[in-house]
Every structure is written in C-alpha cells, then in structure tokens.
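Backbone shape codes:
===
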Amino acid sequence: MDLIKKNILITGVPGIGKTTLINKISDKLKDYRPVGFFTTEIREKGIRKGFDLISLDGRRGILSHTGIKSPYRVGKYKVDVRGFEDFLDSIPFFAAETNLIIIDEIGKMECLSDKFKNLVRQIFDSDKLLIATIALKGEGFVADLKNRGDIKIFDMTYGNRDSILLEILKAVSGAG
C-alpha cells in the first residue's frame, strides 16, 4: 500500500523565492486554516543582519542576528534558540481546527533546536497536511526527512519558479 504523500517539502538554492512561494501558498490555502511561520531577512542599511520569524497570524520574533548574545551560531549569525522555542510554543500546530501547517524553513538555524526537530517529527507523523521549505543540502535530520516515504518534494528552480505554485496546489488537492 502506498503512503499518502501529505508532507510537501520545497527546496531550492538560497534566494530563489521559497519564502515568497510559501507566502503565496498560505494565502491561496486560507480555507485550510493554516498555522505556522515564515522567516524574513533583517536588513540594516542594506546589509543582512539576521532573520525574523513571523507567524501566520502576524506575531514576530527573532531567529538570529549578528548583534545578539547566544552560544549558538550559523556563519556570522547568532541564533536565539530559546526565543525560537518560545515562539514555537505560541503556535497552535495541533489544534483541532488546524488543517495545514506551514514551516519556513527546516534549515541549519532552526535545527539547532531539539524542540523544533521533535515538533517537526510530530507534525510529519500527524494527520495534518504540512508544507515546508527545507535546506537544499543537509545531512542527518534534513536528509532523514527528505528520505521519508510520505513526502513529496518540489525542487524550485529558475525554470519552474512561475509554475511551481500551481503544481503544489494540485498536489495539495490530491492529498486533502
């Protein structure tokens, strides 16, 4: 028996438009009552200094910044793991009325949190529909997720940037 592929992952090179795509998907699938979050760059004087978290209901938090104190680091960014975990606690991922979970993204910074990785495992194993962006490269946890039998992965490229939204929406209507 085939597993239902209700976990949709979107990957692609940095800067290709995955966050923009996930925002469009969230908007198009409002009837599913989505919950989750996306990330945006924090820029100061035109220079990227970190990443904000924004929940689908508009609440904000900081994921990383060059100017914060934290023992966790990815490149030049220090990651606020505790703040990220508090932010996650405020999202009703498993509420009865939640039909769709959106996560932008499953990447190096986010995976510094064991709580996040456990949450992602629970979401994958739940009956909730998941649409998430995921790092193009990655070992361990990221590779394990990509190798699951219950996922459909979309590789966003410059060639399919304009058509991938419709492909994903079609996949969702087949999963739901």
Observations:
- Residues 114-125 form the longest helix (12 residues).
- The first strand starts at residue 7 and ends at 11.
- The beta strands are 7-11, 34-44, 47-55, 60-65, 73-74, 77-79, 100-106, 129-134, 151-155.
